[in-house]
Structure formats: C-alpha cells, structure tokens
Amino acid sequence: MLTHSGVWGNNPQDFIKQAQSRYAFHLVAVNIVIIELKWNAQVANHEAVKNGRAKVLVDGEDDDLGQKALPPRPRDHKATKADLTREALALAFTQTLEKMMAENQATMDKRDEKKRLENEAAGAIYLNLTKEVIEVQKMDVEAKMADTEAKLRDTEARRMDA
Fold first, then answer.
1. I want to staple 44 with a disulfide (CB 3.0 to 4.6 A). Which of 27, 56, 76, 112 is the partner?
2. Dist. CA 52–CA 72, nearest whole Å
3. Which residues form a coiled coil (predicted)?
4. Can you give the pLDDT at residue 6?
C-alpha cells in the first residue's frame, strides 16, 4: 500500500515496488517525479497561481516579498459604482463626525471660559470679603485697645486721687 509521510515513502525504490504491486499499469518516470520535492513545489506553485494564492517557496528560492500571483482583475461598472457610493458615505460620515467634534469642542471651550470667569468673580468677591473681615477685626482690636487704654487711665487716675 502507498503511504504518505510528507513524501511518498522514504526511498524511490520502495515507492516503485509499492506502485508495481498495487497497479497493473504504471510509468516509472512519473512515479519518480512524484516523490521529488522540487516537482511537488512546482505543482504547488502552479496550483497557487491558479487559485490566486501566495507562492510556495522551495529552499534556495527568493521570495518576491508578497507580490500577488496574478494581477488584479479590473472592476466592473457596478462594483466601481458601489465602491464610490461606499466611499461617499464614509466621507460624509467622517465629515459629520468632524463637524460634531468641532461643535462639541466649541461648546466645551465656551463652558470652560464661563467657568473661568465665574471662578475669577468668586475669587474677587472672596478677596473683598476677606479685606472687609480684616478691616472689621482691625477696628475691633483698635476698639479693645482704646477700651484698655481708657481703663488704664481710669485706674491711674484713681490711684493718683487716692
């Protein structure tokens, strides 16, 4: 029986013996070619080109760096029209998104400016209130000092009188 382990058998003579015992008619040259690695690689390349897939490399071959096996077919009118429609919709969508983002950014800038002005106004009010509180505290301290001085004068006047 024929076995497949990457290649047909390990030895060409084994393959020929197996082929002769299994089939009534055989071509030795074809059987030998089948087990050759390069032949298998060429068949795989032919199938790849036929199916439009990438090229299968054999040791020592250079890679064509991802070039397609066949040139692309030209697009028909309907596919091109559909592509153009899709591109127009995508462009309109991106422009709408950009417009929405610009409007959103403008409203955020306005909100930030309004918040900054409110913070400045609140800071100015706080500063004025703080100054007024300090002035009131100074006036209280001056009043207390005047009271203590008056009391000291009264006590000194009483001592002098006594």
1. 56
2. 10
3. 97-158
4. 43
Of 38, 39, 33, the C-alpha closest to 15 is 33
| Cα dihedral 29, 32, 36, 39 in deg (nearest 10) | 30
Residues 28-56 have pLDDT tens digits of 676 666 667 677 777 777 777 777 666 55
Residues 6 or more apart in contact with residue 18 via CB below 8 angstroms: 1, 2, 9
Tokens of 121: 């106004």
Instruction: Average the pLDDT over each of 30-34, 45-49, 119-123, 154-158 and give the range with the smallest value.
Output: 30-34
- Give how far the C-alpha of residue 111 lies from the chain's centroid of Cα atoms, to the nearest Å: 29
Give the E-state strand segments of 4-118 in sequence order: 4-5, 7-8
Q: Does this model's pTM top 0.85?
A: no
**Strands annotated E in 27-92:** none
Q: How many CA atoms does the CB half-sphere of 19 hold within 13 Å?
A: 19
* Alpha carbon distance 66, 159 (integer Å): 115
Say yes or no to pLDDT of 103 above 90: yes
Query: What is the rounded CA–CA span in Å between residue 45 and residue 84?
Result: 35
